[in-house]
Structures are given as structure tokens and as C-alpha cells.
Design a protein that fits this description.
The chain folds into two domains: 3-61; 83-179, Alpha-Beta Complex (H-NOX domain). It is built from six helices and four strands, in the order H-H-H-H-H-E-E-H-E-E. It has helices at residues 3-17, 19-28, 45-59, 63-81, 92-110, 140-153, and strands spanning 118-125, 128-135, 158-164, 171-179. A four-stranded antiparallel β-sheet has the order 1-2-4-3, covered by helices on one side. Strand 1 (118-125) and strand 2 form a beta hairpin. Protoporphyrin IX containing FE (HEM) is lined by residues 1-2, 4-5, 75, 78, 82, 85, 96, 99, 103-104, 107, 114-117, 135, 137, 139, 142-143, 146-147, 150.
């Protein structure tokens, strides 16, 4: 997993809980990297799972809630960091439909070793979009947080229903988005 996902996570931890929390959770975990991340480096995604689990224990906030919160936060950070990727889309559905075939394709050009999930979208009608997440990484909650961030970013009234369809081979969550 790209270092930017780690550095942004630790920045969020610092702003929510203070700088000492970063040292505390790094100390709690046995990390191959030693906890020294650079935004262009690449690290084992399991280190992020360990850090979030440590933060959950210390903050008494469920892992799922922390991961979703982080996804939501990261959507707005991505907008600050990569504004050009947001120029062509005018709505949440537009944006979500462009993630797999455009946004993540551009991400891969910037970071050729990025490990990106698979997304399939089905535009059922103008008020309903189905987006299916598939990955070898257990980041369905992270995807959910990003999708919530996207809906808030475009300031639309969209209900998000989720259904897990994990298999032995991969993690899968089906998101059904209903515009009201
Ligand atoms: C709502 C929109 C988006 C969703 C749902 C989404 C979803 C995800 C998920 C779930 C991952 C974790 C990898 C995995 O699960 O296999 C990921 C990785 C990543 N995404 Fe997205 N993403 C979105 C938008 C963006 C945007 C706007 C950018 C940047 C402009 C971006 C850049 C990245 C990067 C850099 C990674 C890390 C790849 C790696 O660690 O190797 N994503 N994305």
C-alpha cells in the first residue's frame, strides 16, 4: 500500500488525538517499516490494519468506525492533493463511475506499484447506482468511507445501502446508492 495512505492516516490521528498518539500506536505495534513512512514508499497493508487496531484500543472507537472516518477524511484530502482528477465530474454518481476507469488509472500512472481494488458500476437509472468493490485487501469499510466523503463533497441527498459478498478468494461489498 502506498505510503501516502499511511502518512495521511497519521496526520489524521495527530489532528484528532494529538502527536503523542502517533508515537503510542507505533510503539504498540511490531512494524516491519518501524513506522517511518514516506508518501512515495510502499508498505505492507497489514501495517495499516495493525495501526488502526492499536488506535481502536487506545481511543475506544471501533475499528470499523475509524476506518470509515479515515476514508471520508481522505476523499477531501485527495481533492486537495490531486485537484485535476476531480475536474471532469459534476456529480457523485459521475465521480464514482469514473473511479475505476479514470481516477485509479491516473493513480497507477503516478504510482506504478499501487495495488488498487476492482470496481464495477451499474447505472440502474438516473436515481440508482450500484458500485461493487472487490479486493484482496480487507478495505470495504475504507471504500465505504470514501463513498460517503464523495456524496458529502457533491452535497447530494444519497442513501447508501451495503451488502457484503465476501468469498474465500476476495473481499466484496455491494453499494447501492439511491438519490432522493
Ligand atoms: C469514492 C472514490 C474512491 C473510492 C471508493 C476508492 C477506493 C479505494 C480503496 C478501497 C483503496 C484501497 C485498496 C484496496 O482496497 O484494494 C484505494 C486505494 C487508493 N486510492 Fe482510491 N478510491 C477512491 C478515490 C480515489 C481518489 C480520488 C484518489 C486520488 C486522486 C485515489 C487514490 C488512491 C490511492 C493512491 C490508493 C492507494 C493504492 C496503494 O496503496 O497501492 N482514490 N482506493
Amino acid at each position: 500500500m502506498k505510503g501516502v495512505v499511511f502518512t495521511e492516516f497519521l496526520d489524521m490521528v495527530e489532528s484528532l488525538f494529538g502527536a503523542d498518539m502517533i508515537d503510542d500506536i507505533i510503539e504498540d505495534c511490531t512494524l516491519k517499516s518501524g513506522g517511518a513512512y514516506t508518501s512515495v514508499g510502499t508498505y505492507d497493508y497489514e501495517e495499516l490494519v495493525l495501526l488502526v487496531t492499536a488506535l481502536s484500543k487506545r481511543s475506544d472507537i471501533a475499528v470499523k468506525d475509524l476506518v470509515q472516518k479515515y476514508g471520508h477524511h481522505l476523499f477531501f484530502r485527495f481533492h486537495d492533493m490531486f485537484p485535476t482528477f476531480f475536474e471532469k465530474q459534476n456529480s457523485a454518481f459521475d465521480f464514482l463511475e469514473s473511479v475505476h476507469g479514470y481516477v485509479h488509472v491516473e493513480v497507477k500512472k503516478l504510482y506504478p506499484d499501487a495495488a488498487l481494488p476492482n470496481f464495477e458500476t451499474k447505472n440502474v437509472n438516473e436515481n440508482e447506482l450500484v458500485m461493487i468493490y472487490r479486493s484482496h485487501c480487507p478495505f470495504s469499510d475504507f471504500a465505504e468511507g470514501l463513498i460517503h466523503g464523495c456524496v458529502e463533497f457533491y452535497d447530494e441527498n444519497i442513501e447508501i445501502r451495503v451488502e457484503d459478498k465476501n468469498t474465500k478468494a476476495e473481499f466484496c461489498r455491494v453499494f447501492t446508492l439511491l438519490k432522493h
